[in-house]
Amino acid sequence: MLEKLKQDVCNVAKRAQQDGLCKHKSGNFSTRDPESGCVVITPTGVDRDLLTPDDMIVMDMNADVIENLSGLRPTSEALMHLMIYRQRPDAAAVVHTHSLYATACAVLNKPIPAIVYEIEHLGVTKARIPVAPYGRPGTAELADSVVDSCREADCFLLEKHGAVALDSRNIYEAFLKAAYVEELAELYHHVLTMNGWQEPASFTQDELQKWKYPSEIRLTEK
């Protein structure tokens, strides 16, 4: 069941490793079927290079496994994914990575401020990528810890853990957001280094909300 979504999740999981956002068995990925409400999610403890679409697990929102063709268990952080879907009914996909610079910020419990305007595309509401408080991986405590952060923004960090991105369209868009969080975190690191570890100026949420596509650009009907 949900074969297209299984392929999508598998593709993104492999790409995350290829692009350096996750290594080996770290991170996890899911997408939600809008019709059934079921979630397709990656398994626990499988190297990305070995993953196939049949390894993807289908769960319901009660954390019951509906289908696991390879006999694998879902990621231990499935409860976190399900909590995000409950808190964000608009979410179609969730990507959790352990990328280097974003995780460094997470270790320091350091939100990433709006140092460049492009952060506006990451669904922020307070001009920052927030940090969810620490919760032990694979626990209900971790799931509970993300409630406020996933309501605040489409992208956030997990204290001492990694990064999360969600999107209302599909898992490919969620992955692109996760990739940009890493790029933003790396940029923030370099700016701090160049600035003698002094915080740089950043945009306010009010300024970010003023962006509109330029009205001067007009499409000509054919």
Fold and architecture overview:
It contains 7 helices and 10 strands. The chain is 33% helix and 16% strand. Strand 1 (28-32) and strand 2 (39-41) form a beta hairpin. It is an alpha+beta fold and 222 residues long. The protein has helices at 3-18, 78-87, 100-107, 140-145, 147-152, 171-194, 205-208; strands spanning 28-32, 39-41, 57-59, 65-67, 93-97, 112-113, 128-129, 131-132, 155-158, 162-167.
Element pattern in H and E: HEEEEHEHEEEHHEEHH
Mean pLDDT across the residues is 95
Order of strands, main sheet, comes to 4-3-2-1-5-10-9-8
| Unreliable stretches | none
Helix content: 25-40%
- Determine the strand fraction and express it as a percent band: 15-25%
Q: Helical region count?
A: 7
Secondary structure tally: strands: 10
Describe the largest sheet: 8 strands, mixed
Radius of gyration: 18 Å
What would the principal axes of the Cα set say about the shape? Answer: globular
Backbone structural class: alpha+beta
Straight-line distance between termini: 41 Å
